[in-house]
């Protein structure tokens, strides 16, 4: 990490889940000479820190980008999404939907995208309007007084290994079956003010993220080993997991996210229309509408 006095220290938010490792692990290899601080938190906390101006650049919930899109720009080719099963955004139900519609669903406190994705799917696909209650991500406790529970990230993964007769819906699979599109759960966004003030530092951080992603996706072996050691499970599971996720924010993922924002607006989950605006590091304005 650089200590040059004339360089702004970029503050970067890293999602503290395995699904975001390919974007961040090894970041330091491409960040030689860059002054930065990496802050690892769950998505809901990163959402708060970026909106408060306490971070310059961060992975955040896609829904949070929608809320604050006028203040942010999206970093191209960086996201966490899926076209089909996501494996780590799961609804655990006591009974299958076709048998009994849930009246109360406990939802995790750690993200916004997944909660609102669930609300959209329930209301618009299945025509169900349950009560949603916030709860810490503990499946047994969540199901004590609820018909179903939504978990995301590493807690969802470990819970999926021991479902104990529960019925499980993968929200990425549900979205794809319904819309034919991918879903983007997290994006990497920069504050517009940071782009204007710290252009060269932000560009360097963005390039280091692209370098880290390319390196990790070329060789996912170290990520698989890390996951087995830190979280558990078999290497075959983690290989399927990392290869199923999409990190490039391609056209099908952008289209899916735009549709998600449209539906969120129709259900009044968002209070305004949300458009995708991308960072362009080489243009004078450094954003692309």
TrEMBL record:
Pathway: Quinol/quinone metabolism; menaquinone biosynthesis. The lineage of its organism: Bacteria, Bacillati, Bacillota, Bacilli, Bacillales. It is an enzyme of class 4 (lyase). The keyword Lyase applies. Keywords: Lyase, Menaquinone biosynthesis. SUPFAM superfamilies: Periplasmic binding protein-like II (SSF53850). This is Chorismate dehydratase. Belongs to the MqnA/MqnD family. MqnA subfamily. GO terms for biological process: menaquinone biosynthetic process. Its EC number is 4.2.1.151. One of its GO terms (molecular function) is hydro-lyase activity. It catalyses: chorismate = 3-[(1-carboxyvinyl)-oxy]benzoate + H2O. Catalyzes the dehydration of chorismate into 3-[(1-carboxyvinyl)oxy]benzoate, a step in the biosynthesis of menaquinone (MK, vitamin K2).
């Amino acid at each position: 990490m650089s200590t040059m006095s004339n360089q702004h220290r970029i503050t970067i938010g890293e999602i503290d889940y395995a699904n975001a490792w390919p974007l961040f692990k090894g970041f330091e290899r491409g960040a030689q000479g860059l002054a930065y601080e990496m802050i690892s938190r769950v998505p809901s906390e990163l959402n708060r820190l970026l909106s408060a101006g306490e971070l310059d650049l961060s992975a955040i919930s896609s829904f949070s980008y929608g809320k604050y899109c006028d203040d942010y720009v999206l970093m191209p080719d960086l996201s966490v999404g899926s076209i089909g099963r996501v494996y780590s955004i799961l609804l655990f139900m006591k009974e299958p939907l076709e048998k009994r519609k849930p009246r109360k669903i406990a939802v995790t406190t750690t993200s916004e995208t997944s909660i609102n994705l669930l609300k959209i799917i329930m209301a618009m696909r299945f025509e169900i309007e349950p009560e949603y209650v916030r709860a810490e991500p503990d499946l047994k406790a969540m199901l004590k007084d609820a018909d179903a529970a939504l978990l995301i990230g590493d807690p969802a993964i470990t819970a999926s290994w021991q479902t104990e007769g529960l019925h499980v819906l993968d929200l990425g699979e549900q979205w794809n079956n319904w819309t034919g599109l991918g879903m983007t759960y997290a994006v990497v966004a920069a504050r517009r003010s940071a782009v204007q003030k710290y252009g060269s530092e932000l560009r360097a951080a963005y390039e280091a993220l692209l370098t880290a992603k390319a390196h990790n996706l070329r060789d996912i072996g170290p990520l698989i080993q890390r996951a087995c050691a830190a979280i558990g499970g078999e290497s075959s599971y983690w290989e399927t997991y990392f290869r199923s996720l999409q990190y490039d924010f391609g056209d099908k993922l952008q289209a899916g996210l735009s549709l998600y924002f449209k539906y969120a607006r129709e259900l009044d989950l968002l209070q305004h229309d949300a458009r995708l605006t991308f960072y362009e590091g080489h243009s004078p304005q450094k954003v692309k509408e």
